[in-house]
TrEMBL record:
Keyword annotations: FAD, Flavoprotein, Mitochondrion, Oxidoreductase, Quinone, Transit peptide
Native species: Leptobrachium leishanense
GO BP: sulfide oxidation, using sulfide:quinone oxidoreductase
Species classification: Eukaryota, Metazoa, Chordata, Craniata, Vertebrata
Domain of life: Eukaryota
Domain FAD/NAD(P)-binding, first and last residues per copy: 44-160
EC number(s) on file: 1.8.5.8
A Pfam family matched in the record: Pyr_redox_2
Name of this protein: Sulfide:quinone oxidoreductase, mitochondrial
GO MF terms held by the record: FAD binding; glutathione-dependent sulfide quinone oxidoreductase activity; quinone binding; sulfide:quinone oxidoreductase activity
Primary subcellular site in the record, as a coarse category: mitochondrion
SUPFAM superfamilies named among the record's database cross-references: FAD/NAD(P)-binding domain
Gene name per UniProt: SQOR
Localisation per UniProt entry: Mitochondrion
PANTHER family in the record: SULFIDE:QUINONE OXIDOREDUCTASE (PTHR10632), SULFIDE:QUINONE OXIDOREDUCTASE, MITOCHONDRIAL (PTHR10632:SF2)
Length: 450
């Protein structure tokens, strides 16, 4: 069989495309990729950029609105990770393998997966450019690109991870090193850091600290350990109710808090960590460590920096209540890549997805969005191998709790919610577009309580 030209097919383009796909699959034509390019569909009603939690969730929701074949997800990664589980992986309570699925298995059937990176946005022309300089056009665009880890901003990293005693629960490459460093701990400082940038899951840097404390107690090593939380912030947690509870735990477990301390260098060959005092710029202090858990600086993905869809800091510039772009009404953002002033968590994405679903529905009908995202986010603060403080709060930093109990207390039930229920909700409800956060249940429980 020779090369088939689209113009000489004598049949509809979509039929020709199917012939091309079949031929390529059978390996019967070497030149088909040349002409197949012209048959490729480059326009979609909805294009979702990013195949993380926000992207997969919104592709599932939008497919139900505009139909199969009309939604595309642009995502280069073949693997998708449930990252909230990495706290437990780093603490030895879960296996890394249980946090991963193939991207292909999660893309809703009928949604086109474009396995590529986005190179640039041109919202004035309703188009984006991807790898191979290909252009994808859209009617509606949802940006769900997540956040970028910036280990390279700390001198001595990421090459320092080649040495033992150092790990980070924020990367698939280094989360198991955290558990190894904890198991190998003998005597000295165990240091846990929090950077001077926005981060995803702001509770994670101290969750692993509490697990490490519990592990060292269980193995009889705690008396030889000095646990330090060196944070660039001036508080242990942004919401006072939970901060007060955490300060009690820190005091009770003899953990040393050092505020306004920002990690700027790691000398892994000497097991030294260098911190800058943010209250006295230029003043540094060197700490010896036996174990070091690094939370990296983070920022917007490179493609968003200086992009027309982003604010001056590089975050997607959306209305904080509707998630619609402030300048381009057919562009929307969700999750960690946006400038929404709330904590960047999977729970926040769930609540945002429900609002964004309603926003887009109304925009598609040429109506003004009316649903309002209140900034709801949740952080299950793991404080032991069987205890969790379930922090839930809104834009104003006010508790927005689901259960009719005091959630600032450590509870075994909340640990099971975090370790067992939430992964199930994520894989089987959120990513399929059926979970929009606990808002409706909170109202029901409040009524029941009254």
């Amino acid at each position: 069989m020779g090369s088939i030209g689209v113009m000489s097919c004598g049949i509809h383009i979509h039929q020709c495309t199917n012939i091309l796909k079949t031929a390529v699959h059978r390996g019967s034509c070497r030149n088909l990729h040349v002409t197949g390019r012209f048959a490729a569909k480059e326009y979609y009603d909805v294009v979702v950029v990013g195949g993380g939690a926000g992207g997969i969730t919104m592709s599932a929701r939008l497919k139900r609105k505009v139909g199969a074949g009309n939604v595309a997800v642009i995502e280069p990664s073949e693997k998708h990770y449930y990252q909230p589980m990495w706290t437990l992986v780093g603490g030895g309570a879960k296996q890394l393998g249980s946090s991963v699925r193939s991207t292909e298995s999660l893309i809703p059937s009928g949604v086109k997966w474009i396995k590529s990176e986005v190179k640039s946005f041109d919202p004035d022309k309703n188009s984006i450019r991807i790898g191979d300089d290909k252009e994808i056009n859209y009617k509606y665009l949802i940006i769900a690109l997540g956040i970028k880890l910036q280990y390279e901003k700390i001198k001595g990293l990421p090459e320092g991870f080649a040495y033992p005693k150092i790990g980070s629960n924020y990367s698939v490459k280094t989360v198991e090193k955290t558990w190894k460093a904890l198991q190998d701990f003998k005597k000295g400082n165990a240091i846990f850091t929090f950077p001077n940038t926005p981060v995803k899951c702001a509770g994670a840097p101290q969750k692993i600290m509490y697990l490490s404390d519990a592990y060292l107690r269980k193995t009889g090593k705690r008396a030889d350990a000095n646990i330090l939380f060196n944070t660039s912030l001036g508080v242990i947690f942004a919401v006072k109710k939970y901060a007060d509870a955490l300060l009690e735990i820190v005091k009770e477990r003899d953990i040393q808090l050092n505020f306004k301390q920002n990690l700027i260098e790691v000398r892994a060959d000497r097991q030294e960590a260098v911190f800058e005092n943010l209250d006295k710029p230029g003043e540094t202090k060197v700490y010896q460590y036996e174990m070091l858990h690094v939370t990296p600086p983070m920022g917007p993905p490179d493609v968003l920096v200086n992009s027309p869809v982003s604010d001056a800091a590089g975050w997607v510039d959306v209305n904080k209540e509707t998630l619609q772009h402030k300048k381009y009404p057919n562009v929307f953002g969700i999750g960690d890549c946006t400038n929404l002033p709330t904590s960047k968590t999977a729970a926040a994405i769930a609540a945002q997805s429900a609002v964004l679903d309603k926003t887009i529905s109304l925009v598609m009908k040429n109506q003004n969005p009316s649903s309002k995202y209140d900034g709801y986010t949740s952080c299950p603060l793991v404080t032991n191998y069987n205890k969790v403080i379930l922090a839930e709060f809104d834009y104003n930093g006010q508790p927005l709790e689901t259960f009719p109990i005091d959630q600032s207390k450590e509870r075994r039930t909340m640990y099971h919610l975090k370790a067992d229920m939430m992964p199930f909700l994520y894989w089987h409800m959120l990513l399929k577009g059926y979970w929009g956060g606990p808002g409706p249940y909170r109202k029901l429980m409040s009524l029941g309580l009254k």
